[in-house]
Design a protein that fits this description.
With 527 residues, this protein is an alpha/beta fold. The protein contains twelve helices and 37 strands. Among the domains are: 119 residues; 139 residues; 34 residues, no CATH class. The strands form 13 sheets. Strands 21, 22, 23, 24, 25, 26, 27 and 28 form an eight-stranded parallel β-sheet that branches. Strands 8, 10, 11, 12, 13, 14 and 16 form a seven-stranded parallel β-sheet that branches. The longest helix is centred in the C-terminal third of the chain and has 18 residues.
Length: 527
């Protein structure tokens, strides 16, 4: 059993893992799965936006990069335009130096897109957003309309302060919900409407504070009642402070039966919040996976490992973060889109058969360090480069974290694997000393959790009234942190089913008080 070269913890590489690595012709990893995830996530900035000038047209823009970033940063229209050519930054491989050293030099001069967006309307304040309009601070989402602070969601309208929503409308303060309407404070619920404070529910209407209930209406604490009785209870709860209602909801849910792992239509899979998966091992918040391992927030994946936030027609890919769409044999890359058989690329679109490239935004193939090659010359140089990187101990590793343009506390790594400033620096990560936002005339509120100032848009206030939820007292970072706390940590533990005593794997730690059931016993009990 090898030890992680980053955290020194032992980790397992199974025979199936070795088969995958041989198929992709890559060496086994030297980092454990969690450190590999951390190394990828430190390259992803979702919510820290800065005002700066476009280095091409000079216009003021919003960007994920500080004005002090060492490389040029372009507004979206300039970055996607033909006014610049990434091949002008191309260079020869220096066979006497490590590859990452050479890629760093390229990385620090190639222009970066201020915010990676595709075909949006009136949605400037977003990173990693596509095909949306009138949407604000909703990273990793697409096909959104008039949504505010809705992370990693799709096909939603008029939603707020939520994550992992699909086809929802007028939903607030919710996570992992599908086709819900006019509701708030829902966790892992589907087809619910005119309801609030639900967990693990399906097809409920006009209900309050339920857990594990299906196909009912006018329910309170899992009990059906007349519309008149329900109306009286609902009126009472509307006068209670939100924190008091949330505390009561948590206490109620803690006493209800819990399934070992939240999975729907899955076979041979382990992890939580999985849908339509086959042989998805240690995967979380994924759907449509066929043979995947160590996947996070990814979908439509086949025969791949170590992907995070990577989606749509993905096959035989390894160590990739962000981007997606028709990637095949793509490895060790950040935000590759339609970039098959590419390795060590950063923000490259429609690029094929290339290695160590940055900033390609139009179709092309056979490039190394942004320099064009003929097909024959490319294949020869690529093989030699892999041999060179193998000798230097670089090949098979994702980009080193020191290459990330973001501090640890600016990145998604801090959301999922939080560190103190002291620990982050001790582990070799950068730390943003200016993380606390400045109070401006638009920042009329101070967060009741961390004290940081935050703003509220007028459109946002209108939506709170429409959904009938109080305005938040906390900043968006604390709101997202609170949402994550409704879900278990992404870690599996060994327990036994409380009913049949069968050994199970679950995200509920053994010392937690919840009554955890295997899938068979849970279905017999609840359905």
């Amino acid at each position: 059993m090898p030890n992680c070269t980053h955290c020194q913890a032992p980790f397992t590489i199974t025979p199936e893992d070795h088969t995958f690595y041989k198929k992709l012709v890559v060496p086994p990893p030297t980092f454990c799965p969690q450190c590999r995830l951390q190394r990828r996530l430190v390259f992803r900035n979702e919510r820290h936006l800065y005002q700066r000038l476009c280095d091409l047209c000079g216009k003021t823009m919003v960007a994920i990069f500080k004005p002090s970033a060492p490389f040029p940063v372009y507004c979206r229209s300039c970055w996607w335009s033909d006014q610049w050519d990434p091949t002008t930054y191309g260079r020869d491989v220096d066979w006497t130096r490590p590859f990452f050293e050479q890629f760093t030099e390229l990385f620090q001069i190639v222009p970066k897109a201020g915010t990676m967006q595709i075909d949006n309307e009136n949605s400037e304040y977003n990173a990693l957003l596509a095909f949306s309009k009138n949407t604000y601070m909703s990273p990793g989402s697409y096909l959104m309309e008039s949504c505010f602070y809705v992370r990693k969601s799709q096909s939603c309208k008029d939603c707020l302060n939520s994550a992992f929503l699909n086809k929802c409308e007028l939903v607030a303060d919710s996570t992992n919900c599908d086709t819900c309407y006019a509701s708030h404070h829902l966790i892992n619920s589907q087809g619910c409407s005119f309801s609030s404070y639900l967990m693990d529910c399906s097809n409920l209407q006009h209900s309050l504070m339920c857990c594990g209930v299906q196909n009912q209406q006018y329910c309170f604490k899992n009990k059906a009642m007349s519309p008149a009785e329900f109306a009286k209870i609902l009126a009472t709860y509307k006068t209670k402070p939100a924190k008091e209602v949330e505390r009561e909801f948590k206490e109620f849910c803690a006493g209800q039966p819990k399934r070992a792992q939240i999975q729907v239509n899955c076979e041979g899979s382990t992890g939580d919040y999985l849908f339509n998966c086959h042989n998805a091992i240690e995967c979380y918040d994924c759907f449509d996976v066929d043979n995947g391992k160590y996947l996070l927030e990814s979908n439509d994946i086949k025969d791949s490992m170590d992907l995070s936030m990577h989606d749509k027609e993905i096959e035989l890919c390894y160590e990739v973060c962000a981007g997606g769409e028709k990637n095949y044999l793509t490895k060790f890359s950040f935000c590759p889109v339609a970039a098959p058989e590419c390795e060590y690329t950063y923000a490259c679109f429609h690029l094929k058969n290339s290695f160590g490239c940055d900033g390609f935004h139009s179709p092309g193939q056979y490039y190394i360090l942004n320099k064009p090659y003929t097909e024959t010359a490319y294949k020869t140089a690529r093989a030699r480069l892999i041999e060179h990187m193998t000798r230097t101990g670089e090949y098979g590793e994702f980009f080193p974290s020191v290459l990330s343009p973001f501090a640890y506390n600016e990145s998604a790594a801090q959301d999922y694997l939080p560190l103190t400033k002291e620990l982050a620096i001790a582990q070799g990560f950068l730390w943003n000393e200016d993380d606390k936002p400045e109070k401006t005339t638009l920042s009329k509120y101070n967060c009741d959790q961390c004290g940081n100032p935050f703003r509220m848009l007028e459109q946002e206030k209108i939506l709170y009234k429409k959904i009938d939820v109080p305005e938040p007292g906390s900043c968006i970072d604390c709101r997202f942190k609170k949402l994550r706390q409704w879900k278990n940590p992404r870690q599996l533990y060994e327990r036994t089913c409380i009913r049949c005593q069968k050994a199970i794997q679950t995200t509920y730690a053994p010392n937690r008080p919840e009554q955890v059931y295997c899938e068979e016993c849970y279905r017999q009990l609840v359905y």
